[in-house]
Amino acid sequence: MAILQMSPSSLVSTITSYSQRGKIRASRDSFKTQKNLVTTESVSSFSLCPCGRRHFLGAMSSMPFLPISPSYASGSSPLSSMEELKRLRPPKPDWYEELFAWCMNTGMESYEEEISGYKMKLFDSLVGKAEKVLEIGIGTGPNFKYYKAIIPNVSVLGVDPNVKMESYARKSAAEAGLKSEDFRFIHAVAESIPLEDASVDAVVGTLVLCSVADVTQTLNEIKRILRPGGIYIFIEHVAAEDGSFLRLVQNVLDPLQQVVADGCHLTRHTGEYISEARFNGGADIKKASLSSSAYISSHVYGDHCGYYYYDDDDSNAFIVFLTGSYSTSLCSCGRKHFLEAASPKMPFLPICSPNASRSKDVSETSHPRRPDWYKELFAWFLSTGMRSYEAEIADHKKKLFDNLTGKAEKVLEIGVGTGPNLKYYAHNENVFVYGMDPNQKMEKYACESAKEAGLKPENFRFMQGVGEAIPLDDNSVDAVVATLVLCSVSDVTQTLNEIKRVLKPGGIFLFIEHVAAEDGSFFRHVQNVLDPLQRVAADGCHLTRKTGLLISAAGFDGGTEINTARIYSFPWIIRPHVYGMAYK
Fold first, then answer.
1. Residue 7 to residues 200, 394, 503: CA-CA distances in angstroms?
2. Residue 516, pLDDT above cutoff 50
3. Alpha-carbon gap, residue 98 to 478, rounded angstroms
4. Tag placement on the chain: N or C end, fewer CB within 10 Å?
5. What are 469-510's pLDDT values in tens digits?
6. How many CB atoms are closer than 10 A to CB 196?
């Protein structure tokens, strides 16, 4: 079968979502989570933050006209749903949208026939529990027949970024016997679902998470809109086993698949993403292999319950898996959950803070293993091939790193690479630098750079890890530095959240990143064409990310300063840059 014939429903194909949304527990200080950028020009009452900026500590308590948001409200987007759609998934030509919808409608018969047994079992879990259902990536509506057969009064909301799917979906709904008033098509992306918190009984996603730009953000949105006890059911194709021939084929075809099949990834470990999403009601994830699906034969399917429990006197969240036979209570989803499991009275349970990172698992998911020869070659290239770039960018770096003087003794650099920035730290005798990189082959180059910069051996530590799961405690570093890093991480939103987590209050995030050229420009068109090749050749580097917008939208409480530049020693397709600082 052709690539299009086996591709999943489309959602997003370009940049990752601008910020995580999720349920945030209500704080006793209702004004604590307000995240407005407050300038320092006013003469109102202020206090000096450790970062050196003045913040209006009394502004929220003494000025009732400010737009105070309750701390439990999900982080609402400053953009409308349609603006988010355009930002996250730039418009495609009508002929492409129509062709892809037609292919999904006509080319998936054998797949749907083989998967039907799995779907019937999953949709049975909705009986008597779900009257209002949201399906993300509804596509042409192949799942409608399962709703009507088991839920007579069901109301379905179908989200899809491809508006050409609507006519096919409505036809499928009518053929399934669903009344026209019981189905609503919503043109949107799953990273920004235009529905209220706790508003649906169930969320369905089949062949969707392979195509979204930001899996973490999508799962957070699913949790946000699910009612307590609501169910998320899913079927997703996933990466084959590491080291297998099928995985090798997937690695080779993945860049082409993303272009041809509207952002579909062949190598995502979607099961791990879902498992790590921390649905408090527990997880039921199974594996299957479909013979009709060739190089996307590996699947996961199952359901999550959105059961939500917390102790008003405790600030931690807990994950409770569905095993054991102790005292239980029956959730509306039909499952038994351990209400006592989240209690501090049971210290023998593995209690995890919601901010804790599982570095090893996430590292393997976010940065797939590469052959040793590739890692060594890439490290050597960065060590020898970036000298002209470093010479041109030096002035920008010096100005940025001057902001650390007297304010940062413990620094984390993510994507430290071969250590080109270590010379900028060395003027501070007391500085301690954590250098983190997923490529272990970078270590010898980074240690050599540290030595050349005059850093004492005990003041530099190389850590193998990814920005999505930093193996450091909360509020543990004075500064985080990233130069040419956010172009390559798998999940920009998660990386920025991790940066905020490990920064101390008043800490500084310094960044220099190449970014997408202006929309509609010739340069941007070339970037779009070359982006899949760049990801393969340059260890995941994306040419088309709007990194400045993502940083701006990340919600750094102390504000963000972003500047633009063009670096001419770089190939012209990656000349546009942003650089600046963000403050916690």
1. 28, 45, 41
2. yes
3. 51
4. N
5. 999 999 999 999 999 999 999 999 999 999 999 999 999 999
6. 10
4-18+76-305 matches 359-583 in fold:
yes
418: which 2 tokens?
């071969």
CATH no. of 359-583? 3.40.50.150
C-alpha to C-alpha distances, 570 to 479, 512, 565, nearest whole angstrom: 27, 14, 12
Give per-residue burial for 394-423: e unless 16+ CB within 10 Å, then b: eebbeebbebbeeebebbbbbbbbbbbbbb
Cα→Cα distances 475→357, 504, 580, Å: 13, 4, 21
Q: Distances from the Cα of 354 to the Cαs of 16, 232, 278, in angstroms? A: 22, 20, 8
- Give the integer Cα–Cα distance in Å for 208 and 450: 44
Please tell me whether residue 368 adopts helix, strand or coil conformation.
coil
Fill in the DSSP letter of residue 339: G
239 in Cβ contact with 246 (< 8 Å): no
**Residue at token pair 């699910």:** 226
Please give the C-alpha separations between residue 380 and each of 310, 418, 487, in angstroms, as whole numbers.
50, 9, 19
Q: How many angstroms separate the first and last alpha carbons of the chain? A: 51
Give the pLDDT mean for 132-154: 89
Residue 491: count of CB within 10 angstroms of its CB: 25
| 457 in Cβ contact with 436 (< 8 Å) | no
How many Å apart are CA 556 and CA 583, to the nearest integer?
A: 6
Q: Does the structure show a pLDDT above 80 at 114?
A: yes
Tokens 């293993």 sit at which residue?
Answer: 369
* CATH number for region 4-18+76-305: 3.40.50.150
Ranges 300-309, 517-526, 564-573: which has the least confidence: 300-309
19-39 burial, b at 16+ Cβ within 10 Å, e below that, comes to bbbbbeeeeeeeeebbeeebe
Structure token pair of residue 8: 């999943």
The Cα 115–Cα 52 span in angstroms is: 59
The answer, yes or no, to whether residue 351 has pLDDT greater than 70, is no
HSE toward the beta carbon, residue 389, CA cutoff 13 A: 20
What is the average per-residue pLDDT within 441-451? Answer: 95
Q: Where do we find the tokens 């920009």?
A: 492
DSSP structure class, residue 161: S
CB of 66 closer than 8 Å to CB of 60? yes
Is the pLDDT confidence value at 365 over 80? Answer: no
Which stretches of 124-159 are DSSP H helices?
Answer: 144-150
CA distance 393 to 413: 17
E-only strand ranges, 87-225: 132-136, 155-160, 183-187, 200-206
Whether 173 has a pLDDT exceeding 90, the answer reads yes
The residue written with tokens 């899996």 in the block is 215
Residue with tokens 């919601």: 354
SS3 letters across 499-552: HHHHEEEEEEEEEEEECCCCCCCHHHHHHHHHHHHHHHHCCCCCCCCCHHHHHH
